[in-house]
Amino acid sequence: MKQYKHKVGLLLCGILYAQAPTVVGYDMWLDSISFAAQWWQWRAGVVIQPLGASTLRLLLKGYVVDSVKVGTTALSFTYIDTLLQIFLPSGLGAQETVMVFYRGGGALDPTGRGGVYWGSNAVSNVGVSFAYVPHSFGRAWHPCIDTFGHKAFYRFHLRVPEPLAGTANGLLDSVTPAGAGWKRWHWHVTHPLPAYLAGVAIGNYVAATDTFIRAPGDTIPIQYWVRRSDSAGVFVTFQRLKTLLRDWETKFGPYPHERIGYVATAVTSLAMEHSTHIVYPEIIISNNTSYDWLWAHELCHEWFGNSVTGSSEAQIFLKEGFATLGEALYYERFFNKQRYYDYIRDFLETTLRELRWEEGLFPLSAIPPEHTYGIATYQKGATVLNTLRHQLGDSLYFRGMRAYTTKYKHKLVTLDSLQKVLEDSLGVILNHFFDDWLRKAGEVHFRIDSFGRQGNDSVWIAWRIGLRDKPSYHTPTRLTVYLRGTNPGDTLYAQFFTDGNMSGRAVIACGFTPQVAVLNPRGEVSDASTHGVRMLKNTANVSLPQVYLTLRPVGLPANDSVWVHAALNWVGAYDAAGLPLSTRRYHQLDGVWSQTVAMRGFFQYNGTGIGTGAYLDTTWLNFQEDSLALYWRPNPKEPWREWKPYTVETGNSLTDRRGRIVADSLLPGEYVIGKKGHFTTPIANASRVYLWSVKALDGVIYVENASLHRGEYAVYDILGRVYHRGYLQPGESIQLHMPSNLYLIQTPEGVKKVLLF
After folding, report:
1. Cα 211–304–321 angle (5° rounding)?
2. pTM value?
3. Residue 691 has what pLDDT?
């Protein structure tokens, strides 16, 4: 999601911590609340170690500050915009509590994604902001050091009208009378939290409770704070929670907090990983298992982000990349490894197709603040961690994760922390991997140039490396190769390491003569390629969505089948030899089929940011589409040549840069879109738009531009991840086939929410 820099916020970040006291805790007292007026009144006890400082600087947004005291002594202060400056007297003790008395309705993120949410007899907060910098948004409800890299202890004392419940992080100590018709709910947290992870939620809740039993006498309470009507259905929604906890304790180490907790709120636009107090949309919390990936994502944060916390937003991938990988690990645990790879492949395709154009080129070690919640953080972060898992192997990878979460439990980390603990605990050197995959922008691409028999029991593989927006690559990389022979049983998955050079040769044991050799066909390494494997059993069209290719085996007998592998390689065609070939991508097609089968292929092209396949051919396809051509070669040893026959289906326009090339009688080999010998004038962009409609039906989102102007749309999921983005021309519409989820569709007219079941 695109962010907008908030200059005041950046300035405050710069001055906030100069000569600052140490804030070690917050003692939060809610004294009064009015839901009708959307107003509450607080006393915030900020526990500090003065360290001789004369000024305590805190952030607070959207309130009136009535007074500040230490004990009974009133302190001078200034409160301008968001900055609360408190002038400390001399002679303070080693630890003091500064009480801030304030009232108001709090702040809401301009996009509606973060801050304080008021409802009918309900209020809750979400501790991040998508628009403001810093993105930590504890200041929306309490005065604090508002950065990802500062942790403190919390206590909560919430005075709430009956029969409502006041919930917060940590453990509930007691509920005490607080005046006629009021009760005070007392909570405490046993481990320090950054302000963005602290949360309160008040509403007409009941606690649906359970227990996670590690061993006799070693238990963790589970609480779901929900509407009474959801108190039974919530156990259906979370029926796999304890099984996943047990699996993740094996993978990541012991669950690091005092409670497992979710609270249902009316905030439908996102979930949030407040530690032990995960905000979860009430619309999907009862009798609904379609969003298991979402509660799993937030649960994974209890290890990565909530316990082991990145010291700066620039390395937010250290929490969101791990939690996004956790979604795929959920599907691996309850389905199979192929489902895991399929899930990762979706992330990889989004990264390769959209990241450069939507966000730009930057390393995961230094994500710009305007892209904190974007494709790099979530999707690319997960794909790089998938590659690290493959590089180390499962045994070492998860041993390293346990060492990481143990050493830095409830502490702050950097990328260097992760590298060092992996190297120290596993006895490996990861400098090249971390430099190439995390400290440099861009992608690497692996390919097989040729292969053949070596003796009676081995096969040699000649491999080569290409770079996509990356300056260099030096990592000796574990690659998986799939070999397939002519007989049904002649298949083999094997692995070998590259040597840190850009090309080389490997020898692997193999007892048959392979007809096909494919690198990383399931996506074991998340390089600049996406793969699809199908067993074609009839003459219907078979789509390979992450490859942007559709195949139809014309003439295939009813009792026969054809194994086919296709890959979209997100780099320019190798060895172009001066031909006008695409500089963005090429296809690879593998398989063995008889001459009686006429394999038809439908190759999509798109040189715009619009619709399915947006950005496939951006910058390269800037000429009229009747100049397009399809080229082919049977293997990398052969020269490229124009494939015949093919037809360019441009649709209603020669200049909208969207369409497909239909080719018949395809053979195994490499295919690339190119252009013929002439070049036309680049196509100009049109203007923006104003009138739109958004509908959802039967798993499809319909977006229509009914205005007179071209305009941009974007589709986000509940975590703020971009699923689609593009432009629609006047009168143009698009159909997006999407998995079950709650989506936000951004148009020039605002944001609309749709729920697909």
Report:
1. 125
2. 0.89
3. 79
